[in-house]
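ok trying again, last paste got cut off:
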Amino acid sequence: MAAIKETAELLWRGELTTRQQHPFTATGELEEIAPNVAFGRWLANFVVCKTNEGLVLIDTGACARQEQMLTLVRAYSTARIHTVIYTHGHLDHTGAMAHIAAEAAHNRVARPRVVGHRGITGRFDRYKRAAGYNRRADDLIFGGAAGWPADLVYPDTYFDHQLNVAAGAEKFQCHHARGETDDHCWVYIPSAKVLCTGDFFIWAAPAAGNPLRSQSYVRDWAEALRAMAKSGAEVLLPGHGSPIFGAIRIRQALNDTAEYLTQVHDQALALINRGAVLDEVIHDLKPPAALAEKPYLAPLFDDPQFAARSVWRVNCGWYDGVPAHLKPAPHADQAREIAELAGGYERLVQRALTRMEEGKMTLSCHLIEWAAAAAPDQTQVHAARARIYARRAEQSESTLSWRIFIAAAQESAARAGMPLPAAGREF
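nice, full thing came through this time. structure:
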C-alpha cells in the first residue's frame, strides 16, 4: 500500500491519531486512489481527475506553495486542465487558481472552466471589501501558511442547487448545501464511486462555529452529510485530512458526523426555547461524548461551544440576552471601573495570576483582560498576560483556540519586551 492509503488505514484503526498527523498537515503527497482519480494531501486537499478532454480539478489548494501544488499535478499528468470545481470559496481551497490560469496563458491554451456555487461571488466580494480583516484572520487560522492570492478567480459557470459537470465521458455531480459556508457543495464522481466532501468532512469535529468566519449552518450541514451517506461512495476524499476507503466506513463516518451536529443543534435550540441566554447556551451544552471519542470527531480545529454560537446566530440574532450588553459602555471604561473597585490594576494582575495557578484559566483570562484594558501601557500587565495566555494555549484542544490564545500571548510578550513563555505543543 502507498503512503496515503497506509495513513488512512492507520487513522481509521486508531493506530495513528489526528494529534500525530493533524488534518491540516500539508504532507505534499499525491496518489492515485481510484482509476484516473488522484488525491493531493495539502493544507486544503485537492483532487485531480483524468478525462479524455483533459484534467478536472476539485479544489486547488491555497496560494502558498502553489507552484509545488502544480508540480504535483504535472507529475501525475501533463494534460491540459479542462475544468476546476470549487467546493466552496475559502481561499485555502481556491487560492492556487490564479497560478493555474497563468500556466494556461503561458502555454497559450484556453483557461480552465471554473465551476462553483453562485454564492462564491458574494464571498469573494466580501473578501475584497474586508481584505485587511480577512488577511489577518487567515494568517491567524493557518499561522500564515495559507497566504493571500494576488487575484481571486471567480467561477465562470455557476449553479444554485445541483449541476452535472461533463468532461469527456466523465460526469461530476455537484450538490449545493449550506454547511460551514453558504456556498458549499459536495461532488460525487459516479464512474469511480468517489465522494469529494470539501469541508463538510475534515477528520475532526466540524468547524461549525469558527469565531473568525461568517455564519455556519449546523442543521443544514447534518442533512447534507446524511445525503452524502446515501451516495454509494466507496472512497471519501475530505477537504482536510486523509481519505476513507470502503462504503461501510464512509457511511459510518458521515452519519456519525451528522448525528454529532444534530445533537449539538438540538441541545442548543432546546436551551434557547427554554429562555436561556447565550452565556447559558454555550456553557450548558454538552457534546455527545460517545461520538466525540470517534477518531474523526475530536475537537481538533473548532469547539462545540463555537458551534452552539452558530445555532444562536441563525435563530436569535446578535443580542445575547443580557440587557447591559445591548448598548454597553466601552470595554476600557468597564475595565477602569472594575480596577478601581478592585483597588487598582495591580490587584487584578495579582488575582489573575492566582487564578492561573489554581487552574481557573477562564477566570484568569477575564481578570487579565480587565487589567490590560484599564492599564494598557503597563509592562507588568503584559508580562502577566503573556504568561496566562501561553498557559491557556497549552491547555487548548482546538487549533482555533490555540492560535487565538497564542497570538494574545505573543502580543503581550512583545509589549513587555520578554520572550514568549513556553506554550506546549504547536498546531
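cool. Residues 329-416 form a domain with the Serine Threonine Protein Phosphatase 5, Tetratricopeptide repeat fold (CATH 1.25.40.880). The first helix runs from residue 3 to 13.
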